[in-house]
Amino acid sequence: MHARAIAAALLWMTAPLGVHAGDSDTRYISDETAVTLREDKGMSAPVAALLKSGAKVQLLENDADSGYSRVKVAPGRDGWVLTRYLSTEPAARERLAATLSELTQQQAMVRKLESENLRLRESAKKTGAPAPVVAAVESPVMAGPGSSTLSQGSDAVLMGTGAGLFIAGLLTGLLIPMIRRTRSPRWGTQS
Question: Which residue windows are coiled coil (predicted)?
């Protein structure tokens, strides 16, 4: 009876995993949003324009009571938007573009430094430079997620330590219930 209950629970928990797995097309929510620029504070005020996400505006006034801020969108054109839609940072799309540009520059710098490192290593071998200089030239320029030089030995030690602790805990958990205690019928007397 107990085994049937466990099997039924496992089937019930795994049943939703296979439902409609291949029937749907993947979609993403667009980050293209429009914020209404109103002629005055409030939802009932007429809409002056729709501002796309990432539009740069200048804050003129902030009304905390109504939750609206007056912004300037172009010379001679201003209006009110909900304050919660304003951010001090550019939209994620613009920040991503800047970050990708910076990444490309950094990758070019890494390639340049790797080339220089190779040239210096070959030059050191030709001139018979002492071992410490060659070792310093061979050290990694940048340590990052792709750099395995720094973590080769430490990962193995950490994995071994973790496995040892897991096994010790497992054995302790299995052995402690097997230890029988002997109780004396009265305190202070020995059996």
Answer: 96-123
CB neighbourhood size of 71 (10 A): 24
Cβ atoms 49, 73 nearer than 8 A: yes
- The CATH number assigned to the domain holding 63 equals 2.30.30.40
CA 108, CA 106: separation in Å to the nearest integer? 5
How many domains would you assign to the chain? 2
Alpha carbon distance 29, 51 (integer Å): 18
DSSP 87-124: -SS--HHHHHHHHHHHHHHHHHHHHHHHHHHHHHHHHH
147 part of a folded domain: no
Domain that holds residue 99: 92-138
Structure confidence by residue, pLDDT tens digits, 160-189: 888 989 998 988 888 887 777 666 666 666
Could you give the C-alpha distances from 187 to 42, 179, 182, 183, 184, in angstroms and in order? 79, 21, 13, 9, 7
> Would you place residue 133 in the very low, low, confident or very high pLDDT band (cuts 50, 70, 90)?
very low
Within this chain, do residues 43 and 81 fall inside the same structural domain, yes or no? yes
Residues 10-36 have pLDDT tens digits of 555 555 544 444 556 777 666 678 888
